[in-house]
Amino acid sequence: MEAKIVMSGIRPTGFLHLGNYFGALQNYVLLQQQYPCFFMVADLHSLTTHPDTKELKENVHRVLAENIACGIDPNQATLYCQSHIPETSELYLYLNMLAYKGELEKTVTFKEKVRLQPENVNAGLLTYPVLQTADIILHRASLVPVGKDQEQHLEMARNFVARFNHRYGIVFPEPHAFNFGSNLIKVPSLDGSGKMSKSENQNATIFLADEDETIRKKVMRVKTDNGPTSEQTPKPDYIENIFLLMKLVSTEEVFNQFEVAYNNCTIRYGDMKKQLAEDMINFVAPIRSKAQDLFANKKYLQEVMEQGAAKARQSAKSTMEIVRHSMGLNY
Ligand code: TYM
After folding, report:
1. 45, 75, 266, 330: which has the highest count of C-beta atoms within 10 A?
2. Is the CB of 279 under 6 A from ligand 1?
3. How far apart, in whole angstroms, are the C-alpha atoms of residue 20 and residue 10?
4. Using a 6 Å cutoff on CB, does residue 19 contact ligand 1?
5. Most informative mutation of 43, 150, 185, 197 for ligand 1 (most atoms within 8 A of CB)
6. What is the mean pLDDT of each run of 10 residues along the chain (331 residues)?
7. pTM for the whole structure
8. How many Cβ atoms sit within 10 Å of the Cβ of residue 121?
């Protein structure tokens, strides 16, 4: 049996945050030791929502720096930029003939974007999951480490792959969303109203570039109450949210200590938030500082991108030869 291949990507639409880390990057770092991995900055996808490209180069560099600061080793994994692989666009075109308007219009992320940017409902937005499928199957990848919000895109990718394989012969393995420890993760925003996000809800998102004081301020603003008055009271959503975030960045001992205090009604949310803020700072500060250094080293980032593009193109080229052949486009 062939070794499984891993592929995933992040859009350069802003600073990375704890959601990107725990939903995606944490898995990338573990997977790179076990499988051939392709990790990409999805600059083409970002054009569907951010047509102004003035800051794109800087954002691509920052996402690369943040990937490496989180532990991606560019000599182990293939780290590259989506637009450097023109084969992606060719495969995207072929897959578009296998994707139906109706199913694309029903995609949750598409409907969300229509709501957020009614003045720019472009065709790229509609076919976003098709481009994402092209990214993945261009390397014939089957493991796709992503957060919960990408689950539907992976389901669609499986449909497109099944249609391609049915029509033209079995070329691609089935891609699956992947997370170590089973369930896909959604890191909630601090206010519990949604998820942490690069471009929305910035005050309720902890970015990997946030300064210590910013993190303290954001965490201390989180809504709490006076605490439970009787033992074993179920937690309201906004309190459950704080525990959820604590589970990600604090030690088990600290987490359990607040869990016990909640259950015997002695919890002090002020103390809990202070602890959470410090644990987030301890987590973020070393990544922030590494990313800043890397971001300043443009020559290194350029080398990483070029080396990554060369490796990714090799893989893309060999897949596209098989694709054209199986589609009968070989005359
Ligand atoms: P993007 O840039 O929105 O997010 C990058 C990764 O971070 C995860 N993520 C989260 N996980 C948990 N909780 C959160 N609050 C949270 N916010 C973001 C996302 O699930 C994702 O894994 N469409 C993709 C980019 C992409 C891609 C691909 C992914 C393009 N081509 C091919 C996989 C394979 C996206 O918009 O990710």
Report:
1. 45
2. no
3. 8
4. yes
5. 150
6. 88 97 97 97 98 97 98 98 98 98 98 96 98 98 98 98 98 96 91 87 94 98 94 92 96 97 96 98 98 98 98 98 97 91
7. 0.96
8. 13
